[in-house]
Amino acid sequence: MRSKHIVLAILCLLFATPIYAQKLSLGYLYPAGGQVGTTVEIEAGGLNINKSTKVIFSHPDIKGELVPFVEKSSEVKKRKRLTDESSPQLADRIKIRITIPADVPCGVYDLRLQGARGVSNMLPFEVASYPNFLESKKSKLIRPDIVSTLPAVLCGQVTPGGIDYFKFTGHKGEKIVASVMGRRLVPYIADAVPGWFQPVIKIVDSQGKEVAYSDDNHHNVDPLIITTLPQDDQYTLMIHDAIFRGRQDFTYRIQLGVIPYVTGRYPAYGVAGKKVKQVLEGANLSSTKETIKTKKEGYNHISYTSDIGTSNTVAFYAVPRSKTLIESPETGALLTTTTAIADSLTADSKIKRYKVDATMGEQLIIELIGRRNGSRIDGVMRLRDKYGRVVAEADDTEDPLQGLMTFHADPVLKYTPKMSGEMTLEVEDLHRGFGRDYHFLLQRHDQMPTFNAFVSPANISIPSGGTASFRVDVAGKAKRPARLEIIGLPKGFTTSNLTHLGKAWEFSLTAPKGAEVKRFPIEIKFDYPSEKGREQVDVLPVDNMMQAFYYTHHIQAAELTLDVVEASPYRLSLDFDHTKVLHITAKDEVIPIKVLIDRDPGFNENIELILGKKNSLFSLEPISIAPNENEKLIHIRINGSLLQSQLKRKWAPTWQMNIVGTVKGEIQKQGKRTFQNAKYSEMTPFFLIKLKK
Prior knowledge:
3 helices, 50% strand, Immunoglobulin-like, mainly beta
């Protein structure tokens, strides 16, 4: 990663000694997929993943087993040197053998690793129609890797400044498809700018003449080439990062060959549960006409089967059965709360106009769905009154449910009319684009959710008898205080105070001693005040990923689970009811807390206590608990001057806190950096501190 951001980050780490708990963190999979009906062996890189005991897939029929793997010491030393390729998050390697039954549908599934101490984040694993072909890692333009049979999925890892080369035989008139998955395999990279692998591909003939080039696919970062070969020849495909970065997590998969690929399907909208006759555009399709039916309302992903394989997936949006879908209407069609309009911009109508009945004082809410459904439109909506004056306009509106999207091009228009009557809604593309692929759907809502709630991690790992935490983030305007309800929590499990008081708020779960090591599916509901009394929304399970040192994205997971893992040799608790609020005053200097320690027989390690949630108001010098101690009175210091400033706030502030007890592990060196991996790290339940005015 050659940028000043990287240099600054490395300088901040020099000579530091951070302590990491034994959390499993997946950084990449290579190859990140396999052919349906086969067994494939892959490499996984990450942090602490060499402590894995199990492989978990979101499809229950895909099976993975860990393969014994001993890495050369020279390779380990090379990787841990401080270079552009080194990263603490990619320190470990394991091998996994994956069996994919023949009846598993082609597509992308979540893969996670489980260890004695918890479950890792997820990464995508693709099941494809074609066999993997792995790069040799020594290819050059004059000595490319020879791909003997097509179709195939080319798999590789881009190194710093590197270009990978693949040679294949092509015949005149063949419509060759080269479809890349790069950014899709590792959606966000925390320490990279831009915050993902940005592939570039090119195909040249035997004379080095360029046949095709691509650095993206419209608004998709991963490039696509569809080209008709001009002659029988030996062709070379090359791939590299746009700015020639590289590392082990810059992995890619390229589906290459005369394979089916759908570039457009019309219509792209329908009604859930009803058949839709579609016309397909693309390459190497057995038929350009298909009939589909989706049961699921909202966003669906459809693939099409041909006699030479399964196509890529394309988005399809289904409105509820309660709505009437009006397709490609004449100018002036009426949009109501019981209808939806599906349309596209054309050369003759680069601006589409519709009618809307407005009632004075009642808010109009109109949503456009386009880019989120695979359209090229960068939509703009304008609302005009009966005199033709623009009274409201909407451009980009962020949709927090689209965690993989970094440019939100679909607008939501909200306007409260000052008079009743008919109004005109205009839709156009910001850049005046048009065509069948500039399609969109309009829906009018009585109301839309004012917020979304997300829980992370999607797999909450808790030691038997111990305590674990999870976080609930709120995007939008949620009324507070709200409460959580956890559905499916096993008997005997307890929680911290379930009142949600901030945009991001943490909670803890405590398992009873001797709890069975098992996976439990759970649900979390967000119970909030509204005009109708109290309402509930689902809290969506996500894994949070960081992009480019700063931005955090919610990547939705297939399910939310509570994974009870092996017990630690000690447990921490508090000698007071942690669900109650502790009150402090502006005159207080310390908060006395008694921590209780329950040790297994024979466990005689020192345990170091620190604050689990730090802020500038509270501090605690590290305190060591000796092997013969089963409780410890600690004093959390309060910054008096900062606390005084809190008195000016309208509402009495509330803070979360917990105590973490760590048993230090071995010290490791990577270049000039020093890391200490925690042998064990346990926590008390969260408790609340409130300033009493």
